[in-house]
Design a protein that fits this description.
By secondary structure, the chain is an alpha/beta fold. The protein is built from 7 helices and 5 strands; from the N terminus they run βαβαβαβααβαα. The protein has a 5-stranded parallel beta sheet with strand order 3-2-1-4-5, with helices on both faces.
Length: 214
């Protein structure tokens, strides 16, 4: 079955890519440069696709950056918050309507190549902070995408009810090279270890009794 996956280069979408490849999907990956501070993740996405021999497109939509301000991920004048994801200050990492925009572009790509499925790596931990990772968002958008074109493509988020620990464990089962993933929001050469994404990742590896190669 032909499928498109939004591959950010992060741990979740990379693990899902390996998972779907293992299941036998004919995968086509799409990554989007929306002016995110941590664009190093795009290099990781490219590396993963090369290893798995998956067609990969990186779409530049940085022209939208000026209308996606107000987030610490897209606005250079806003500092990236440090701490845990369940803290109120983490809401500054929300990029306005990001997944709606990315999924719309990915759906258009999937429809154009007659793919049957569209995947993204939303998971349970994200739902508390990111509105576009909640089950109700996924379910409503799934319905909308199905009627958006004469060719029907189905949105799926297989990790929606899994947490980060579950995903790390699944990655271990699939022999995912976690050194080919990037989570830090700071966008520097090495992970800061303090932003919400770094903290969540570190806790997940610790609770899974694994060592993070980064």
């Amino acid at each position: 079955m032909k499928a498109v996956i939004i591959l950010s280069g992060g741990l979740d979408s990379t693990t899902l890519t390996y998972d779907l490849k293992n299941q036998g999907y004919d995968l086509f990956a799409i990554s989007l440069n929306y002016g995110q501070r941590h664009k190093k993740e795009l290099k990781m996405a490219k590396r993963t696709c090369k290893k798995l021999n998956i067609p990969h497109k990186i779409i530049n939509i940085t022209s939208l950056n000026s209308v996606l301000q107000g987030s610490s991920l897209t606005s250079p004048n806003i500092d990236t918050p440090h701490g845990r994801y369940d803290e109120e200050n983490m809401k500054s990492t929300v990029v306005s309507n990001r997944n709606m925009i990315l999924l719309s572009i990915a759906a258009g790509y999937g429809i154009s190549i007659k793919a049957e499925k569209l995947f993204y790596g939303a998971h349970n931990n994200d739902a508390a902070i990111y509105p576009d990772c909640r089950p109700e968002f996924v379910n409503k958008l799934k319905e909308t995408i199905l009627i958006a074109d004469w060719h029907r493509i189905e949105l799926e988020a297989p990790y929606l009810y899994m947490n980060k620990i579950d995903i790390v464990k699944r990655g271990k089962e699939l022999n995912v090279p976690f050194e080919d993933t990037w989570s830090c929001y700071e966008g520097k050469e090495t992970p800061c270890g303090k932003c919400g994404s770094c903290v969540e990742r570190a806790e997940a590896f610790k609770l899974a009794n694994m060592i993070d190669p980064l």
